[in-house]
From TrEMBL:
Species, as recorded: Brassica napus (Rape)
Taxonomic path: Eukaryota, Viridiplantae, Streptophyta, Embryophyta, Tracheophyta
Annotated EC: 2.3.1.286
Family that this chain belongs to: Belongs to the sirtuin family. Class IV subfamily.
Biased composition (Basic residues): 424-437
Keyword NAD: yes
Pfam families in the record: SIR2
Residues given in the record as Zn(2+) binding sites: 111, 114, 136, 141
Protein name from the UniProt record: protein acetyllysine N-acetyltransferase
Spans annotated as Disordered: 418-437
Catalytic residue positions: 103
Top-rank EC class of the record's enzyme: transferase
Domain Deacetylase sirtuin-type: 1-236
Entry keywords, A to Z: Metal-binding, NAD, Transferase, Zinc
Amino acid sequence: MLIEELAKMIQKSKHLVVFTGAGISTSCGIPDFRGPKGIWTLQREGKDLPKASLPFHRAMPSMTHMALVELERAGILKFVISQNVDGLHLRSGIPREKLSELHGDSFMEMCPSCGAEYLRDFEVETIGLKETSRKCSNAKCGAKLKDTVLDWEDALPPKEIDPAEKHCKIADLVLCLGTSLQITPACNLPLKCLRGGGKIVIVNLQKTPKDKKADVVIHGFVDKVVAGVMETLNMQIPPYVRIDLFQIILNQSLSRDERYINWTLRVASVHGLTSQLPFIGSVEVSFSDNHNFKDAVLDEQPFIIKRRTTETETFDIFLKINYSEGCDCLSTKITIPFKYEVSTEEHEEETIDKEAVLQSLREKAVEESSCGQSGVVERRFVSEPRSETIVYATVTNLRTFHCQQSVLANGDLRWKMEGSGTTSRKRSRTGKRKPRA
């Protein structure tokens, strides 16, 4: 059986490289181009393009994405080359140093001066390597950032194509998943393994121009093939846990007559005060019983509430963060104690092990099979004017994967796949974006 043959090839490989196209993201709700329901196929047939049921920024990695993560963690997969701009390989957990995103990433900005990269939770507003509205946060730099998505006339960036070529040349197996292998020059990368004796395997629904160069060709759904490979290798596909960040900023200042404390509370993006929070729909604000402030519902961004109190008053501010469409959990509740204090330190920062908090949230989400867990990953204080910033991490999506092998009457194997969690869909790629394979 071809799936078992592919599993053996992967098991024996010393330097496995995976080359991916739009076909690995169709099960995430993101349409491909040349498939039966692909954008170009439907346009050619005069049919309506698929409508997105959920926003692009809430798309979650597929079974295939997460299987690649497990292969990388096991030391089998050495490098991933992607033609997609959906950013799902990075979100799934593939290390950046083991990934080439040939055509860019819709959620990535880069600094042309110092080379810093910024992965956003919103889709960057431009394409074609143009300047965006944000600047590099490096204090020694501050240059204007650019998007990373190529337009048709843009050449593949050396930062992405050079390591891709290097790994293809030394690969003993290049596995092509969900790609028509028709967009040049990217489609020629897998062929570079042949000179060194490497082999090519192609898994795609339709035939490709490179099929004759491959040792194994499987025409089928990528998720089903990969599920069979992982089962044959006796490897578990890890769950996907999405964690989003937001910050709560509480500013306090004395009134001119020094009788009151004017305070402002803001729920904001960690990517800057002017950036949108795409995963938060509204914020409900209430207060402890010992205070007579009126409750408020903030349903438009920016989420800001302003109040005044006396210098000696203490109370609790209760926030209910309501998440937007595409999040598996409905809301998170947070309590902010309010007390005006004069600090002797100009700047204070609480030491928090951010990675430990994030790992704990992931483990709890998987153990409890639910979302909504949250924790503080950063806390900063400024004395004048008094300001406290708390960065929260919250689990907004959880997706688990299961595959089951069964034998048909003719002796063939069938794979039953199950995935739990919300599947997000991308809006059709028309208008400002030109589609890429």
